[in-house]
Amino acid sequence: MIKIRTVIPSFAVGVALVLASAPAALAEESVPGVAASVPEEISSQRADYVPQSGGAEGASLLAYPTGCGLVVLSYKGNLDAVGSVASSCPYNVTQIKHKVTIDRSRWYGWERLAENGTSAYETTSHGTIVSWYCGDKGTYTYKVVGQGEINNAGQWSTAAAYDEARYDC
């Protein structure tokens, strides 16, 4: 299982941060630019455990390698609903793949607005952004789901997180 923690960085409204399974000391270290505690008004937001999914043909995908992490942001850009996902490791990995989607809450459920997928090779970090023009659309809750996969010397691992934000475009 991967623990999702919601924290507030100095540059965004909200962020979902996933730290890979690691020694407790690593998970408790402070992250530069991120507040040490979660303000009361958002403390109930996105604090869940997400089970790992199984891979093809019964092969099991592992959680992100120790020390690697995944961050998902949902925020309003000028006249756009914007979502981003970023993965980072303290060492070079073979490949990082992302898929990021942005949905909005409707009376009938979640409406898919946009998605984007990208890959990077031989890197320590990778980021992917998706946006959707929301000018004059009204006030909605937007959900960004970010999924990441890391190939570290032939061993694939995965992580996923989401973030929601409500705003008027």
From TrEMBL:
Residues 1-27 form the signal peptide. Keywords: Signal. It comes from the Bacteria. This is Secreted protein.
